[in-house]
Structure formats: structure tokens, C-alpha cells
């Protein structure tokens, strides 16, 4: 089963995915004009010790096949990302 959504990432933490124990893999595609930072809790930021994993503007991709929990993102300027999640079963 798959899910493809476009999500607006704001300058405050934005939840991209909720916990899914059946998740096989997810991918975040950033075709926007601004970098996005991805993390696993709502304390994510664009700087400092809580800085997330950078997904670069203009085609940056982040994919993870192990994390089953929430996925969050933040940007220094509002932008959009495409999120693809694949889960087992129906």
C-alpha cells in the first residue's frame, strides 16, 4: 500500500508522517526553492543541536527504511515537499 502527498513545510515544525508500524520505507522529495530539515520529533530546528537532516532544495531526497515513528520537518522559509510512504499489507 502506498501514500503520496504534498505537504507544506513551515517555519515551525510540521509533521510529515505519523507512526506506522507497517511502514516499509518513506521518501521525501524537495523540489522547492528552500532547504528542508527532517527529524523524528517536534523539537527539530534549522540550526543548533536540534538541527535536522538537510534535504536540499531543487531535487534533494531523503529516504529511510527503518524509522516507524513520526517524521517532522522545518524550513527557514515556507516551502513544499512530496512525501511517499510504502506500507506492508492492505
Task: Write the SSE topology.
Blueprint: E1 2-9, E2 14-17, E3 23-30, E4 36-39, E5 53-55, E6 60-64, E7 71-75, E8 79-87
Antiparallel strand pairs: 1-8, 2-7, 3-6, 3-8, 4-5, 4-7
Task: Please supply descriptive tags for the structure shown above.
mainly beta, Jelly Rolls, 4-stranded antiparallel sheet, 8 strands
Structure description:
With 90 residues, the protein is mainly beta. The chain has one domain: Jelly Rolls. The protein is built from no helices and 8 strands. The protein has a 4-stranded antiparallel beta sheet, with no helix packed on it. The chain is globular. The model has no long low-confidence stretch (mean pLDDT 95).
Strand order of the largest sheet: 1-8-3-6
Uncertain residue ranges: none
Fraction in helix:
under 10%
Tertiary shape: globular
Amino acid at each position: 500500500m502506498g501514500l503520496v502527498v504534498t505537504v507544506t513545510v513551515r517555519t515551525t515544525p510540521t509533521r510529515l508522517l505519523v507512526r506506522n508500524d507497517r511502514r516499509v520505507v518513506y521518501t521525501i522529495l524537495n523540489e522547492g526553492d528552500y532547504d528542508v530539515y527532517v527529524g523524528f520529533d517536534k523539537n527539530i530546528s534549522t540550526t543548533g543541536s536540534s538541527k535536522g537532516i538537510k534535504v536540499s532544495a531543487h531535487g534533494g531526497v531523503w529516504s529511510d527504511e527503518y524509522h516507524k515513528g513520526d517524521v517532522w520537518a522545518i524550513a527557514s522559509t515556507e516551502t513544499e515537499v512530496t512525501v511517499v510512504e510504502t506500507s506492508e499489507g492492505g
